[in-house]
Amino acid sequence: MSREAKGIMVNIIRIKENKKENILDLVARETTFTILLNQKKLVTLNCTPEKYKYLGLGFLYTSGILRKKEDIVSLEINKKQGLMDIRMEGTSLLPKDISSNNLWLGICQQAEGEGNPFSFIDTSLKINPGLVYSLISEMQERADFFKLTGGVHSCALADKNGSIILFSEDISRYNTIDKILGEAFVHDISTEDKIILTSCRITSGILRKIITGKVPLIISRAAPTDRTIELAKRAGVTLVGFVRGERMNIYSHPQRIGI
């Protein structure tokens, strides 16, 4: 999608070195995207207006609602209205109140409360520190819209050979994860030996999505929370943060970063 579709020019006053000037500046466009599930409104997301299909299916997948493609009976997307109408079979994990904007978190909590904790991620994936630094650097290089606006988050899916397979930007850090995992879901890209790269702070909500997506390693330029670290330890996820230059912090399962 072009930058004109994702952004809009606005008149601003810029002050620099005590000098004021009126200029046009590019800012990120924000729109709403509503998911209808079996003819009922499920959730409305605020997002960057692109990759609606991946966002919608990624949201359903990381929420635990959508498990396999065969569950989808029909799917229609109206880009102009910002609407996805999906009909599915097997939606037993839906909470009673499906209008909640915290739906995905509610489903995760409900599943854990019913004795269905996340499966432990066990994989032989191992990479060296140099690959960590180069992958983060490449993700930043690809973040063209962030460079123009400073108003979006970035996320990527990479393999152990150092190739970035998928990339997304969005005003919401949660949406970037959903777009990546949704695209992987649609195109049958295995994630069990892959790496998630992100520019954002890693919250437990972000990590829950990654665990549901079965990704064993997440790397971020930012920091995690204490709850995120504990969850990563329990789920078998290697959590790497504060990647700057040739420095990083490893918070859980360090065996996947070879020294």
Automatic annotation (TrEMBL):
Entry keyword annotation includes Cytoplasm: yes
Cellular-component GO terms for this entry: cytoplasm
The keyword Cytoplasm is assigned to this record: yes
Gene3D superfamilies, per the entry: 3.10.20.10, Cytidine Deaminase, domain 2
Keyword set, alphabetical order: Cytoplasm, Molybdenum cofactor biosynthesis
Recorded GO MF terms: sulfurtransferase activity
Localization per Swiss-Prot or TrEMBL: Cytoplasm
Binding site for Mo-bis(molybdopterin guanine dinucleotide): 242-247
Gene Ontology biological process: Mo-molybdopterin cofactor biosynthetic process
Function in brief: Required for formate dehydrogenase (FDH) activity.
Family designation: Belongs to the FdhD family.
NCBIfam families hit by this protein: fdhD_narQ
UniProt-recorded name of the protein: Protein FdhD
